[in-house]
Amino acid sequence: IKRGLCSLQVARDLYGVIVTPDLSEVDAEAAVARRAEIRRARLARGRRQRAGPMAPSDGERVMPAGELLEVVRAGNGYAFRCARCRSVLGPAEADPRSLGLVLDEPMDAFSPLNRFGLVDEFVVRIFCCPGCGGCYSVEVQRRSDPAIAPEMELRLQGAADG
Question: The whole model's pTM is what?
Answer without folding.
Answer: 0.79
